[in-house]
Amino acid sequence: MPGIAGIIKRQPCGGAEQDLSVMLQSMKHETYYVGNRYLNPDMGLYLGWWAHPCSLGERMPLVSHDRQLALIILGDTYPNYRGAISENGKGALNASAQDSFRLYQESPVKFMEGLNGWFCGVVVDLKQRKITLFNDRYGMSRVYFHEEENEFIFSSEAKSLLRVRPYLRAIQPEAFAQSLRSYCVMGNKSLFKDISLLPPASLWQFAGGTGPTKLSYFDFSDWERQPVLKREEFYGKFDETVSRVVPNYMESPSRVALSLTAGLDTRVILASAGASDGPLPCYTFGGLWGETFDIQAARKLAAICNRPHEVIRINERFLNNFLTYAQKSVYVSDGAHDAFGAHDVYFNEIARGIAPVRLTGKFGSEVVRVRRLIPSTDFPHDLLQPWFVPYLNEATSFSQISERIHPLSRVVSEEIPWHEFGRVAIEQSKLALRSPYMDNALVKLMYQAPPELRASRDLQIRYIKQKSTELGDLPTDMGRAGEKGRALAKLTHSLFWALAKSEYIYLYSMPHWLTRVDRKLERLKPERIIVGRQKFEAYRIWIKTHLAEAIRDILLNPKACCIDFFDKASVVKVVERHTAGTHNYLREINKMLTLELTYSSLLRS
Fold first, then answer.
1. What's the CATH number where 122 sits?
2. 540 and 529 Cβ atoms separated by less than 8 Å
3. 437 located within any domain
4. Is pLDDT at 385 greater than 90 in this prediction?
């Protein structure tokens, strides 16, 4: 995944440049990445980075006219520094960029507050002999770090720290217990021993050979104190903000495409784009069986706006190469994304061929509406090693660990960056990912929304219908948005909900007894009748068909390391029963396989 890696030495020490090379090599997942380095042994700084071609990171570092300040920023900022670079020379800055350097010299906090997007970076101040490490206010652009007496090492990817400091190659039991209960590691911790995350809105300064002065440039309480607006006044501001913000995310020297679904979040983007100049191809992800409601609706939505549309489908090539995709899912995300997130690697690899920039409606449901992400679930204790059970029993839930009170602050600065990072990391490793729903202006405005508006879908539906009646009338994947009457709307939604629920049970949560019934009917291929309308991931079925041999080879290997946490006899039982089609252990096998691939790709390499 394009990002940054660095070492800050407090005392002269050899080997730093070699360590930096190893760190960077572990992060180069694609041959088309472009990168550079900034080395200043006198200040003890060894810095390197990777970026997508034609992105902001390709033009780093930016250097002030007096050459006393150097800025390295990775990610996307809106408006961004790309326009600040003159055409007459790589790295030459126009007057606007020089004003930004002056603003930083006057107030680093104000400078950072003016940045908008997902990013991380470093500012080197030669005059004051100060190094400043920073990230975005949501913590979406991760920076892992490990601190010792003589050095501070950091990176956008934990694997680069593991590669150069072998003594960090251990899984923290408390963190793994959290991941089993809540599907993520929380509290700015990582899965690995003594590796932490830079908190959101960090402004950490290193000077005089001392440890970092840990500052923050933004406090969500500033947004929380805004007055709640009346319904009509708020809608007017929402309309203006969305219509102004979305076009910024469509600007790029590289081709931009919209990953379109049947839902409201991407439909708002399509409505705000309207009949704007420039191509905006659209694509939708699909599975092996039939056409999902997402595909059917997205094709119609794209046609209404005269946008080209295509479908990216799971096929035999994906299933035959599942293990390769699963390994990438775990390795690239530093174990934050599951082995059964392999399809995300596959989909975004193909999507890059359509456009290297992916515009998405991610997090619209969490920002504009109210949707929780982090669950608190149980995991079968009999499958675990006895020594690990107490860790699972004591694992803290999100409600216990969250430091935020306001629900929107909890979503944007904790739930989304903790729970969704793994998938985002996979996507960003293949292409540049952009979501206007986490633009500062829009998030700030949503703090002023009347609570009843965020609790409903009215805000997005009204916006869409005012831009295009046709877009507003087309039903969503749950049969909504095109209602003609309350009774009909309720009936339609109930039908779509029932279909979605039946697919969910069949593909994910089927009880053991029903699994045995399904096995007896397998010659009739019931999956072709039951699924394919809402979901396209069918790992429960694939485990006993296409993936059985690969999963047995990995999990039943006598040298498998997952038995450090999972009971060996239980691993055998789970694999044999599921592949035989008599039981459903989808979640358990996913966790076991993810842990084993974490060991093989991150801890033993």
1. 3.60.20.10
2. no
3. no
4. yes
